[in-house]
Structure formats: structure tokens, C-alpha cells
Amino acid sequence: MDLLPNSAPLATKLRNTLIQYHSVADSEWRVAKKTKDATVWRKPSEEFCGYLYKAQGVVEDVTNRIVDHIRPGPYRLDWDSLMTTMDIMETFEENCCVMRYTTAGQLWNIIAPREFVDFSYTTSYEDGLLTCGISLDYGEVRPNFVRGFNHPCGWFCVPLKDYPSHSLLTGYIQTELRGMLPQSAVDTAMSSTLANFYSDLKKALKTDKQ
Question: Which of 2-20 are b and which e, b meaning 16 or more Cβ less than 10 Å from the residue's Cβ?
């Protein structure tokens, strides 16, 4: 089991990596899925033998509320249908923490339940926010779970200039599920999960306003 890293340099490196992803030219992305709520693209990851996914859609709410629903905290577990448990293991200053969470099985349990331990960091970005994370090899793996690994990932949320009560939410996800899985099953699951993330998030934001 590794020791926890120094949070400040890890947070800086993570933020810089996400900003780099955010500047990748449109021509490098290929559409993986489109729904009324979001578009999902993908490109080969430079971190592992899989894909870096990009998802983007407009969400009818203000930036702070959206990010509060995404980052580690009381809201996420209530609405994210894939997440089954979440525990904050360590808290640092400056919006940093280490969390452990588990996910449900997918594709009729072809993909068994997974466990992740992630370093999470939330910071300002332009007129909005960036919440990002990366997995750590930390803590014992729970029985009946496969330990997955999130390479640098995150969500940029910025208000639309002409409609400040609406926000553009752009995510970058590259999850190594590990275990003996056909790549086609992983690709199908990732695209669908990201598209469903937007529709579930929108429903949660509407419900919490009532």
C-alpha cells in the first residue's frame, strides 16, 4: 500500500493535465455517442491502452450547484445511479480529498462491481470551476470488488456568456476497469455511462430545486 502523496504538487499537475486535454483540437476526437443531453467523443489515451473520453452538454443551472453535485460530497451518491458507496478517507486543505467509492455491475454484470480510491481536487477555472481526480494505489481492496483505476479525469463547468443561469459542462474520463474484460464491452459501457451521467444529473438538479 502506498503512502498518500503530497497534495499540493499532485493537485497542480492534475489541473495542468486537464487543461491540456481541454485544448486538444476537435479534429482529434471521434464521436462515440450522441443523445439529447450530451455528446461523447473519444481518442486513444496516452496513459493506458484504452480511450480518453470527452463528454459535453449544456446544463440548465448555475456552475456552483452543478459542481457541488459532481464532486465528492453528500449529493453525488443520491443521484449517480452507477455509484453504490462513497467514503471520504482523508481531507486536505484547498478543496482536496481522498475518497473511496464503489460502482455497480454493468452490462448484465459482464463488468463486475468496481472499487476506486481517488484523489479529488476542485478549483476555479476561468469564470467557472474544475473538479478533477486521479486514482491512487492506497488502502486494501474490499472483497468481491475489482480495483479499477482512473487516469487523470475531470469536469469543467463554466457559465454560458449569454445565459449565465445555464452552464457548459465538459468532462474528460479515462477509466481503466482492469480485470479480464473485452475492450468492446468497456467501450459500450463508458459511452453509455457518460451519456446517462448528464440525464441523471439534470434530473437531480431539477428535483433538488423543488
Answer: eeeeebeebbeebbebbee
Three cell numbers written together for 67:
459542481
CA atoms within 13 A on the CB side of 160: 12
Q: Which residues pair with 167 in a beta bridge?
A: 59, 159
Element (H, E) at 180: none
Cα-based distances in Å from 1 to 4, 31, 140: 9, 38, 7
Distance CA 12, CA 101 (A): 23
Burial (CB count within 10 angstroms: exposed 0-12, middle 13-18, buried 19+), residue 98: buried
Q: From the centroid of its chain, how far is CA 171?
A: 7
> Could you give the C-alpha distances from 125 to 19, 58, 69, in angstroms and in order?
9, 17, 17
- At residue 73, φ and ψ (nearest 5 deg) are 165, -170
H or E segment and range at residue 203: helix 183-209
- Cell numbers 449565465 correspond to 164
Q: Which residue has the cell 472483497?
A: 143
**Cell, residue 148:** 479499477
**pLDDT tens readout for residues 85-131:** 999 999 987 689 999 999 888 765 667 888 999 999 999 999 999 99
pLDDT digits (tens, 9 = 90+) for 172-186: 999 998 877 777 778
Residues 174, 88: Cα–Cα separation, whole Å: 22
